[in-house]
Every structure is written in structure tokens, then in C-alpha cells.
Amino acid sequence: MIRIIIAEDQALVSGALAALLGLEDDLEVIALAKNGQEALALCEKEQPDILVTDIEMPLMTGLELAAAIAEKKLNSKVIVLTTFARSGYLRRAMASGVRGYMLKDAPADTLAAAIRTVHGGGRAIAPELAMESWGGEQDPLSERERQVLRLAGSGSSSTEIARIMHLSEGTVRNYLSEAISKLHAKNRVDAYRLARDQGWL
């Protein structure tokens, strides 16, 4: 029996996923988490074979969760299940140790097959993404630029970003300026939109 934890902040989606996977004879959903931090705690406690996670979640994103699982050397293999068909997200997911990347609009039996593949030591990537990842643009942003841009995109001022990240305002402005320049954007809002659309945030 393959033991699974689902991390998804929308209860309707996680409930439906659990019900669908529960119809498979060899799959067992042992817990549901509504955010990344809860999922990490459950993975440490329950040691599931597979963690199926969304990307956009409160407190900790699915990609941060995957990186934390790899860092803590937990045995759970991670499959991202998301609506974001973007090569930037796929590249970051793979760099975080994710073994599978599937889209939410895929049929239920496709996800079940992906879980079996990943459990068996393979990788499972949505076909439309596998092709796109070869041709997509490389992420030009540094991790710091990404963090600053993410905060700017959520409406934080340079002063607030400086306080949150324990940096000087001048340093924050430099990071924003670099990000705007690298993305050939008009301003910080445009830079945030461009980076988000590419899956780099």
C-alpha cells in the first residue's frame, strides 16, 4: 500500500483528491494538510511514501515545502499538483527535489499512475510541461531579487521590505532595480507580473 499525504489549501479540492485516490486498491491517503507548515509536520510524524502538494499555499509554498523535505532528508517523495503550467515553476520544482509535476486538470488515473511511477523511483512530468521546459526562458533572478520582488508585488513599500528582510532601504532599491533591469520591465509592478507569469516567483 502506498501511503499518501495531500497538501492543498482548498478543502474541496483536497477532499475530492482524497476520495478519488481512495478508489485505487494500492493507494491510501493518510492525512490532509491545509498549508505547507502543517504538511511538513505531518511528513515528519507520519513518514508517508508520497506527498502530493499544491504550489500556492499559506505559510509555506509547495516548492519551499519540497526543499524543506529534501533538507531534512525525509523519505517522502514529492509530487506537485498545480494549475500552473509554467516551465519556470517546473525548473524550480526539480531543483527543490520534486519527483513529479502534474496539472490539476489531468484525469484522476493519470495522477494515480504518476504516484506509482514516483513511488517506484521514477519521475512523472505532465507531457505539455516536459516539452515547454526545454524551450522556456531561464530565470535571471537571484534568490534575494525574487524575495524582494515577491514582497513588492504583495504591496509592501521599500521601507517595509527593508524591515522584513533586515536590509537597508538602499539595498532593497538596488535589488528591485536589478530585477526590473533583468526583466526589461517598466517598474516594480510590471517586473512582479512578468516574473510571476514566467513562474519565477
Describe this structure in words.
This protein is α/β, with parallel strands linked by helices. The protein folds into 2 domains: 2-135, Response regulator (Rossmann fold, 3-Layer(aba) Sandwich); 143-198, Winged helix-like DNA-binding domain superfamily/Winged helix DNA-binding domain (Arc Repressor Mutant, subunit A), CATH 1.10.10.10. It is 53% helix and 14% strand. Strand 1 (2-7), helix 1 and strand 2 (27-33) form a beta-alpha-beta unit. Helix 4 packs across helix 6. The chain starts with a strand and ends with a helix.
Structural features:
single chain; 201 residues; alpha/beta; Rossmann fold; Arc Repressor Mutant, subunit A; 2 domains; six-stranded parallel sheet; 10 helices; 53% helix; 14% strand
